[in-house]
Each structure stands twice: as C-alpha cells, then as structure tokens.
Amino acid sequence: VSAPASPPSSPSLPPVILTQDELKKIAAYKAVEYVESGMVLGLGTGSTAKHAVDRIGDLLRQGKLHDIVGIPTSKKTHEQALSLGIPLADLDSHPAIDLAIDGADEVDPHLNLVKGRGGSLLREKMVEGACRKFVVIVDESKLVKHLGGSGLAMPVEIVPFCWKFTANRLQNLFQDAGCVAKLRTCGANGEPYVTDNRNYIVDLYFKEDIGDLKAASDAILHLAGVVEHGMFLDMATTVIVAGELGITVKNK
Ligand code: 5RP
C-alpha cells in the first residue's frame, strides 16, 4: 500500500526533501494508527521508536487513547515513557502483548530484521517475541537484500566473562563469510559498552553473504557465553517504510 508521505507540493514550488528523521517520524506516526485504547503495547527503542512513544504520549494526554499499558524495551524508553505519563508494566505482569512498535537497522525482503545497533536487542527480542502484532518502522535506508550485507554491524549480546574467547568463537563460526568480530566500546577511553542487562555486545561484520539465516542464528545461540543476537527472523508482522515517494506498508 503506498500513500504520499506528505501533501504533493505545488507545481511552482521545488519538491520538499525530507530529512531521515522526518521520514522516521512519518513511519512512527503511521504505526501509532494501529494503537487502540485498552492495548498492552511493546514500546521500542531508538530514534524512530522514540517518535512513536512521543506520539502515544500525546494521544493519551489529549484523551484520544486511554487504558494503555506500555512494556518498554530499554531503560531509556522506560524513562521516556515515564516522563510522558504512559502507564508502564513488564512481561512478568503482562506476558501477552497486543502490539509492539519498534525500529530496525536492516529489513530484508522477507521482513527479517537486524536490530540492536542501539544496544537493546535482548529486551526488544523478549518483548517483541511476546506480542501478537509487531509493527516495524523504518525509513527506506534500512531496506537491504540480505541481512548483514550492508557491511554494518550484526550485534550479539554476550556475557562479559572471557569476552575475547566468545568473540573469537563467533568470528570463527563465520570464517567463510569473512567475519570480523569487534567488542562494542564507548567513551573516550574505549571502555566496553554495557547493556541494560550488564552484558557486552560484540558486533559482527561480514564481507560475504552469511548464508542460511536460521542456521546462522542456531549456531550463534549454541555458543555458551552468547545471550542473544540481533537477527529477528520471522518476527515482524508489518513493516512500515517511509521514503521520499511515500509510505509503503508490507505485511507478512
Ligand atoms: C535498538 C534498535 C533500534 O530499533 C535500531 O537500532 C534502529 O534505531 P533507529 O531507529 O535509531 O535508527 O534495535 O536496539
């Protein structure tokens, strides 16, 4: 389904070029149209999901939505939702979620995703794995032919204990695909990036196609020391893509 992302510009005016953040916001607002009063909602993490959470907060404040319960996928989203007055809970009290809305780093033609460049992949996978409908919101730069083929990071959350050992094992798993595993760091001194779950993240970079994604997923999860990876296979039910030519809604 395609619709203009913004009203058509008048013939006498130059076309409006939207920024990437404006496209993210358009996708996010479109996704919030799926939200109904009384729903338990998975609240995603990242710059695109942030627009959706802001929008939900606005609609609650305006009285256009009510009786919403949000299940945040990160401490950051928890803070944002709290500041907007969105009632919050967790998976322990609400194990069944009606709808989750979140961004992604890559989306392939089968609606498989890479997530976690923002570091929240474990909680995202737990929450989004428990929802009836998972709506992914992206700008068109996130569309790829093959996951991992963009040359950008495929994140894996690992326990800090002997992280080099686990990073080497991950790299060796995908030797044929020219994989390089790098510990994610932050700050001026390059300290390890620590997730909300007090784990580390190893980013995998591939020179060649990873091949069978399910086999790759199983192999990664089989390694002791790995907590979760950022491939979200067969989880998205809808992907909303905002591009210069309009919005595309892809359904599973
Ligand atoms: C965080 C994520 C984000 O959804 C993903 O990184 C996309 O982020 P953004 O919307 O900022 O482009 O998976 O762990």
From TrEMBL:
Main enzyme class: isomerase
Coiled coil listed as a keyword: no
InterPro entries associated with the record: NagB/RpiA_transferase-like, Ribose-5P_isomerase, Ribose5P_isomerase_typA_subgr, Ribose5P_isomerase_type_A
UniProt keyword annotations, A-Z: Acetylation, Isomerase, Phosphoprotein
Phosphoprotein as UniProt keyword: yes
Gene3D superfamilies: 3.30.70.260, 3.40.50.1360
Record GO terms (molecular function): ribose-5-phosphate isomerase activity
SUPFAM superfamilies in alphabetical order: D-ribose-5-phosphate isomerase (RpiA), lid domain (SSF75445), NagB/RpiA/CoA transferase-like (SSF100950)
Entry EC number(s): 5.3.1.6
Function: Catalyzes the reversible conversion of ribose-5-phosphate to ribulose 5-phosphate.
Catalysed reaction equations from the record: aldehydo-D-ribose 5-phosphate = D-ribulose 5-phosphate
Pathway: Carbohydrate degradation; pentose phosphate pathway; D-ribose 5-phosphate from D-ribulose 5-phosphate (non-oxidative stage): step 1/1
Residue ranges crossing the lipid bilayer per the database entry: none
Biological process according to GO: pentose-phosphate shunt, non-oxidative branch
Name of the protein: ribose-5-phosphate isomerase
Superkingdom of the source species: Eukaryota
